[in-house]
Amino acid sequence: MQIVTLISDFGIKDHYASLLKGTILNLNSDIQFVDVTHLVDTYDIRQASYFLNAICKKFPKGTIHIVAVNNYYDPGYEIICFEYKGHYYIGPNNGVFSLAFDSIDEEHIYKIEYDETERDLFNLIAHGVSLISQQMSITEVGTPLNSFEKKIDIKPVQTQNEIRATIIHVDKYENVIINVHREFFEHIRNDRPFEIFFKYYNPITEISNTYSDVPIGEVLALFNSANYLEIALNMGKASSQLDLLKDETIQIRFL
Predict the structure, then answer these.
(1) SS3 sequence, the chain?
(2) What is residue 154's predicted lDDT score, i.e. its pLDDT?
(3) Rounded Cα distance, 231 and 91, in Å
(4) Which residues, 6+ apart, have CB-to-CB distance to 127 below 8 Å?
(5) 26 with 133: CB under 8 angstroms?
(6) What digits encode the pLDDT tens for the residues 104-135?
(7) Do residues 9 and 38 make contact, with C-beta atoms less than 8 angstroms apart?
(8) Residues 45/98, Cβ–Cβ less than 8 Å
(9) What is the C-alpha to C-alpha distance for residues 160 and 158, in angstroms, rounded to an integer?
(10) Model confidence at 74, in pLDDT bands (50, 70, 90)?
(11) Which residues contact 104 (CB under 8 A, 6 or more apart)?
């Protein structure tokens, strides 16, 4: 059975996610869908790339990952597919994959082709899934892509003693996720003490292993399951209680 993950900004009120699944199943019914989320903020490819990067490594090789976010329609509309580290990816050529991965081989990205009368998002994605799930080579799924769309991600600004980072996501529990990866943090830190500053609160000076490392209601910082820095409240809602919102700046100072 072919595993297919789904990330979209379709929401759960409308029928679009089911329409995509039905179109795929009509071509291959032997599919196991995993709904990562359909609640990506509308058009937010940066948030979608965070979700994709967070989950893809946990799935077995051969999984097909679909990203359907910031979908647009014009005469040059392109749905692309490629293989990366044993996984397959399908989605619009709008920059989302350039934000998720740093080292995609652009010479091996393909534009999915289908009947000109049925070149909508759902049919193009379903056609790509059908061919890949039949063990067809990725080179046969489409034609070589002429131009891979790239977007510049918001990277942390670093100096020898400081990182200025950005809140990239607030999850359901209102934990605040920051665009600082554990490896990057430890490299800059170099075993030095540090202070994480946010708004007018006292700085955080240590990294916790779990939320319960601090008393209920206390603030903490930890690296989440995707290894990104997170500010949270034990059994609380960090975003609303600390007034921390997406796209705001967090400062980390090394002493």
Answers:
(1) CEEEEEEECCCCCCCHHHHHHHHHHHHCCCEEEEEEECCCCCCCHHHHHHHHHHHHHHCCCCCEEEEECCCCCCCCCCEEEEEECCEEEEEECCCHHHHHCCCCCHHHEEEECCCHHHCCHHHHHHHHHHHHHCCCCHHHCEEECCCCCCCCCCCCEECCCEEEEEEEEECCCCCEEEEEEHHHHHHHHCCCCEEEECCCCCCECCCECCHHHCCCCCEEEEECCCCEEEEEECCCCHHHHCCCCCCCEEEEEEC
(2) 83
(3) 31
(4) 27, 112, 114
(5) no
(6) 999 999 999 877 656 688 999 999 999 999 99
(7) yes
(8) no
(9) 7
(10) low
(11) 82, 84, 97, 98, 148
Give the confidence band of 50 by pLDDT, cuts at 50, 70, 90: very high
Whole-angstrom distance, CA of residue 87 vs CA of residue 63:
5
Q: Which domains does the chain have, with CATH numbers?
A: 2-144 (3.40.50.10790), 157-254 (2.40.30.90)
Average pLDDT of the chain, as a whole number: 93
* Tokens of residue 110, six digits: 């393909």
Q: For 150-185, what is each residue's pLDDT tens digit? A: 998 888 999 989 999 999 999 999 999 999 999 999
Q: 66 has which bridge partners?
A: 6, 90
In total, the chain counts a number of residues equal to 255
Distance CA(177)–CA(237), nearest Å, equals: 13
State how far the Cα of 2 lies from the Cα of 104, in Å rounded to an integer.
23
What would the two tokens of residue 216 be? Answer: 């209920």
Give the count of beta carbons closer than 10 Å to the beta carbon of residue 13: 7
* Encoded tokens for 104: 């995609």
